[in-house]
Amino acid sequence: MAGEAQPWRLPATELQRRYRDGSLTPLEAAQACLARLEAVNPKINAVIARRDGAFMDEAEAATERFARGAPLSPLDGIPLSVKDSLYTRDAPTTWGCPALRSHATGQDEFAVARARAAGALVIGKTNVPEFALEGYTANPVFGVTRNPWNLALTPGGSSGGAVASVAAGITPLAIGQDGGGSIRRPASHTGLVGLKPTLSAVPREHVLPSLLLDFEVIGPLARTVGDARALFDVMRGPAAVDRSSLAAAQAAASPRPARALRILYVERFGSAPLDPQIAASVRQAVARLAQLGHEVREGPLPLDLDFYAQAWPQIGQAGLAHLFEQHPDWARQASPKYLDMAEKGRAIPAARLWQILEETRRLRRDSVNLFASVDAIVLPSAAALPWKAEDAYPTHIAGQEVGPRGHAVYTGWVNAAGLPALALPCEPAREGLPIGMQIVGPYGADDALLDLGEAYEAAYPWASRWPEL
After folding, report:
1. Which side of the chain, N or C, has fewer Cβ within a 10 Å radius?
2. Surface-to-core class of residue 289, CB atoms within 10 Å of its CB (0-12 exposed, 13-18 middle, 19+ buried)
3. Strand, coil or helix: what is 439?
């Protein structure tokens, strides 16, 4: 096949349609994805562990199910990748760490198990920064991951390998993880859709130790909103192994707004710099939301987030200190910067950690009041365009010097608040680099966000944009 007809270019929803009408089989799609992996992965270094034989065997089994008219789910036969911070039963989960090169538990993370049970075809694992703690993607085990839109630049992190695999057409879907923006910012840097679900909407079991309290959630990455919804629907839902998922499921059952939405647009956080091309692109997207009939107003975010400016790095530092205390063998092979972070974490008093927990509970309470007067909040997904692939963060944004999280100011509070957020592509920068916005909703409003995203995509589609790899 040529051009747009090539299976690796097709969204998961279109693959499903073709499987059902018999014009394409999961085996043919899997073969196309493997060929695409061979062609582009050496350039971008997105997939770092492959399972070609099992992948093809599972594609053949899915093909047989469709031939019998008995597919398992809307995800049956759909290729996807899994972030290398999630356990998979048949491959090591290295977390980008030298000490974990062969670390395997023989278990699947809960969401991965649900995807496999639905018939999804796991092509392999995708690259992460060491301990998945940074906003770019490079580690001592597998090296640097590059942005398909410009190989000199980063796709972001920590789900950098995941977004690169989807943006390059290796798979239509990827399972990512977001602890402070690690789905939304990389999605914005690569022109993808990414959902950071409500806290516990996707249950957690068989997991690596958390370094960011309960902020880390599992979510989908895709080229279209419909594809993201299909993967989310398979992974979501309550499970007794994660009792907090029961509350998330109850919140998700609330009726969705059957009217135009009240949207608050927050362009800036105080004096934090924002790339002017991002500001212009997101402002255009917000105007388009208004054209769709929604009530849009602009203003500051009515939450006090000053506490997290100092507390956010301390959370990771304390998490690493605890990790290395539990696993001293992992610490012995960790890079010096993470040893330094852990050393700072050991100096944090217990009272400070308790204060962080109390402030997080306060933020979650305040977020309820926030959504009493608005239905959704739109912000940029990232403050900076992609930067040099080997650098952990951009040192300047809009001519202003910034620290390690200057590019990430818009995302972490959403994790701390436990809220859902949907990252959507906006108009790209003049040099062609992707730009994204995020739409944040109240606790449990994942479906309402996806509805809004699908309506926006229908009016202003983006899936035909492809990098020139």
Report:
1. N
2. buried
3. strand
List all residues 6 or more positions away from 465 whose beta carbon is below 8 Å from its beta carbon: 191, 425, 428, 434
Catalytic residue numbers, as ranges: 83, 158, 182
pLDDT tens for residues 226-262?
A: 999 999 999 999 999 999 999 999 999 988 888 899 9
Residue 347 lies in a domain: no
With a CB cutoff of 8 Å and minimum separation 6, the contacts of 180 are: 212, 215, 312, 408, 411, 412, 415
Pairing of strands 79-83, 121-126: parallel
Residues paired with residue 144 on neighbouring β-strands, in sequence order: 138
Structure token digits, residue 312: 């956010």
Strand 400-401 with 376-380, pairing: unpaired
Query: Containing domain of residue 386, as a range?
Result: 3-248+256-305+357-459
How long a stretch of residues is the chain? 469
193: in domain: yes
Tell me, what CATH number does 117's domain have? 3.90.1300.10
Question: Residue 278 has which token pair?
Answer: 């991002």
Positive or negative CA dihedral for 252, 257, 258, 263?
negative
Radius of gyration of the chain (CA): 21
Is 295 contained in some domain? yes
Q: pTM for the whole thing?
A: 0.97
Nearest to 19 by CA among 142, 120, 109: 120
Q: CA–CA separation, 238 vs 357, rounded Å?
A: 24
The per-residue b/e assignment along 27-65, b for 16 or more CB within 10 angstroms, e otherwise, is bbbbbbbbebbeebbeebbbbbbbbeeebbebbebbbeb
Q: At what angle do helices 26-44 and 12-21 cross, to 10 degrees?
A: 150
Q: 3-state SS of 401-434? A: ECCCCHHHCCCHHHHHHCCCEEEEECCCCCCCCC
Residue 83's φ and ψ, nearest 5 degrees, are -65, 140
Note the pLDDT tens digit of each residue in 313-342.
999 999 999 999 999 999 999 999 999 999
Q: Please check whether residue 437 lies inside any domain of the structure.
A: yes
